[in-house]
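Subgroup meeting minutes
Present: P.N., E.W., G.H.
Scribe: E.W.

1. P.N. recapped why we're keeping a running log of single-chain structure predictions: easier to compare across weeks, and new members can see raw inputs and outputs side by side.
2. G.H. added today's entry (149 aa).
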Amino acid sequence: MLSNISWNQYLVTVATLTLLWYVYVYLRFYAGNLKLKDSPTTGQAFQAAPVTNQDSVQLENELETDEESADEFMQVENLIEEIKALLATDSQTTVINTELPADLKKILAKYSDLKYTPYRSAINELILAECERYGTDTIEESDVDGLWG
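Output recorded in log:
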């Protein structure tokens, strides 16, 4: 029975059914979002919505949030560089540094603003990964979170 169907017929049928499925999904879920808007081509002039005081306050809040995010990100970048530099210099010395946790705690204290941000867990993972990379096994996973103070 299936040997009577050619590949061409099969592909046309599958393409048609797929197209019909996407048309159905579009009409069912997205057609309600489309509304005819007045445009200059319909003869009506375009009118911009008036800007309210609430809109300008919301825009200022969004800009401040973006600036804070950029500042946090720069702090994270600086912290990462300091951690990497500390662990790199520590790995080059032949003496085992027993003060590494205290040194890391000092660095993290300078960036206490990052203590309650989503970056904290990523920074903790970075510290563990860099310690493992440089062969510094003086810090365990349970101790890293306590370094934030």
